[in-house]
Amino acid sequence: MQITATITQQPEIARTPPASQLTTGVLDSEARELSGSHILCEALVREGVELLYGYPGGAIMPFYDALTSYPALHHVLVRHEQGAAHAADGYARATGKVGVCVATSGPGATNLVTGLATAFMDSTPIVAITGQVARPFIGRDAFQETDVLGVTQPITKHNFLVPRVEDLADIVHEAFQLARSGRPGPVLIDVPKDVQFSKTFYHPSTPPGYVRAKPVQEPSPSAIAGAAQLIAAAQRPLIMSGHGVILSKAFDELLAFAEKANIPVITTLLGLSAFPETHPLAIGMPGMHGPAHVNRAIGIADLVIGVGLRFDDRVTGKVSEFAPRARIIHIDIDPSEMHKVKPAAVPIVADAKAALNALVEAIEPGDHRAWINEIRDWEAQDNARIAAIPRDTTSPDPISIIEAIHAETQGEAIIVTDVGQHQMWTARHYTWTRPNSHITSGGLGTMGFALPAAMGVKMGMPGTPVWVVAGDGGIQMNIQELATLKQEGLSIKVAIMNNGYLGMVRQWQQFFHSRNYSETPISGPDYVQLAAAYGLKGIRVTKREEVAEAVHRRWKRRVL
Amino acid sequence: MEEEGTVIIDFVIESEANVYPMVAPGSAITNMIEETEENAGHD
Question: What is the ipTM of this complex?
Fold first, then answer.
C-alpha cells in the first residue's frame, strides 16, 4: 500500500555519506554536510530518542534508508500506523518522555490520525514524523499526497511542514520542546521527500534557533492566598485529582496537601493512580460510572478543588447541576481550561506540582473527619445493598477477574485498558496504589488503543509487569499488533472480557433505546487458536473457579 | 533463559453484565441508575 515509485525526478538528490562521516548515534561538535534524512536521525538522537514506532513507504524511504546507520534508534515495525501512534502514546504516558511515531505520506499519515487525536485529548507528548511528496509535487494530487497539516491541525498541539533542509534540525528540536512543555500534546513534522534527500551542513552543537514562549509554571501568590481562604472556610470540601497530577508527577505533593487539609480525594478516570486508593482519604472515581457515594458527595460539597483536570462531561454530567453548592478552585497549567466548563471562584494557572506545593505552605491543618465519615457511611450502605443482590455465580465475573489481576500483581503492574465496560470495571475494582499505573484512552475513548499502547508501555518500562484489559470488540480493532509483540519478544498479559457484545453500547441500548440491540452482538475469532497463529500462548476461561488459576498461571518457555 | 512471552486469556463472561451505577447522558450525576435485583449485573 505504501510503496510508490511515481516520483522519479528528485531535486538535489544526495548520496548517502560515507560511513566515516556518520555519527551512528554519537554526537560530535563539528559541522558536516548531511542529507535531510541523516539530519533527522541526528536530531532524534540528540533529543534522546531510543524508540520509534513506524511503517515505511514511498515518501519516507530516505529516512528509513538513513535509519540503518543509527543503531541507537530502535525502530519497531508495527503492522498498522494507528498502532504506531498508540504505541508512542503508551510509551510517553508510562515514561514521561516524548513518544515518536513515523509514517509515510497519504494513507500512512492518515492512519496516524486516530492515535494523534487520542494523544491530543489526553495531553500526551508525541512527535509524529510523516513523509510528504516532494515539494514540486505538493498540491498536484500526487500519488499518496494528503494535506496532513490540514488534516491534523485540530488534533495536534502544532504541526510543521519542513520548507527547507536547513530548517529541519531546528524544527525537530522545537517539536520536541512543544510536545513536552506546558500542557503536553502531539506535534507532527511533515518532511517532503526531496527535503530528506537534500544536503546541508549540520551543526549538532548549535542550539535550536527559536523557542516559543514558556508556559506559566508557578502559581500566582494572590490566587494561592484566595484558595487558602476558601479551603479554611469550607465544611464539605473535596479534592478532585485529574491527569495533570500524573503528568506533573505531583504524587507526593497531592498526598501532602490532602493530608494536611484533611480533605477527601476523588480521582477522575485519567487521574486514577495519582493517589493511593488504600489511603483513608481516597473515596473513588466521579461521574457517569462513579460509585454513588462519590457523586452524592459532589452533590452536597461546598468546595471542589480541581487539580489538573478539565471538568470533562463524563465527570460533570449535566453541568448546571454539577457540584451545585460548591465553589470551585481550578488548578491547571492550561489557561484556556479556566471557566471553560465550570466557572472557577479561584483559577490557578500553574503546574500541578508547583500549585500543590504552594497550597501546602499556605493552608492551616484541617479537620473534616465528620464529613469523611458521612461519605464512608454512604459507601458502606451502598456496598451492603449491592452485596445482598443475588447473582449468577457460574461464569467468570468481571469484578472477580479484575480483583484476581490485582491480587496477582499486588498493584505493581501497569494496567492498560481499552474502552468500554471492561474499562469501567477495571477503573473501579483494581486498587490503584502505584503512581501512574493506569493507562487508558479517556478523552477520545479510542477502542483499539490498549494493545498497541501496552507495547509502548512495556518497551518503556521493561521491568514492570504490563496487563491489557480489553473487550472483545476493541481487541479486534488492532489485533494485528500481536505480530509486533511477538516480533519484539515482549511479555504482556492480555485479558479479554469476552461477552459477545459491544457491551457498553449494548448497555446504553438496554437503558435508553428500548433494548433494541442494533448491531451490538459481535463475533470473534477463537482467541486461543489466534494466539497460536501468532506464535503466542492462549487460554480460554469459562468458569468462575478457573479465574484465579488462569491469572496466576505461568507460561515459561525457553528462548535462546 | 526463560521468558513468558505475550499471553492471551479469553475470559468468557456473562453476555449481559452491566456497569453500575450509570448516569444517563445529560443527567445530573446524582441521578444514578443503580443496580437492583431486577437489573442485576456486575457492579
Answer: 0.93
Domain that holds residue B20: 1-43
Q: Measure CB to CB from residue B35 to each of A286, A386, A528 and give the nearest one.
A: A386
CB A306 within 8 Å of CB A331: yes
The question of whether A143 is a catalytic residue gets the answer: yes
A65-121 residue pLDDT tens: 999 999 999 999 999 999 999 999 999 999 999 999 999 999 999 999 999 999 999
Among the options A353, A421, A504, A509, which is catalytic?
Answer: A504
Q: What is the pLDDT of residues A134-190, one digit of tens each?
A: 999 999 999 999 999 999 999 999 999 999 999 999 999 999 999 999 999 999 999
Q: Quick one: A28 exposed, middle or buried, by C-beta within 10 A (0-12, 13-18, 19+)?
A: exposed
A374 with A274: CB under 8 angstroms? no
Contacts with B14 from chain A: Cβ below 8 Å: 392, 395, 397, 499
Share of chain A above pLDDT 70, in %: 92
User: For chain A, which domains are there?
Assistant: 19-202 (3.40.50.970), 222-381 (3.40.50.1220), 393-552 (3.40.50.970)
Nearest Cα residue to A420 out of A289, A521, A530, A540: A289
Terminal-residue alpha carbon distance, chain B: 42
Instruction: Please tell me the total count of domains within chain B.
Output: 1
pTM recorded for the entire structure = 0.93
Q: Is A44 on the interface with B (CB under 8 A)?
A: no
* CB-neighbour burial class of residue A7 (10 A; exposed 0-12, middle 13-18, buried 19+): middle
Residue A363, C-alpha cell as written in the block: 493552608
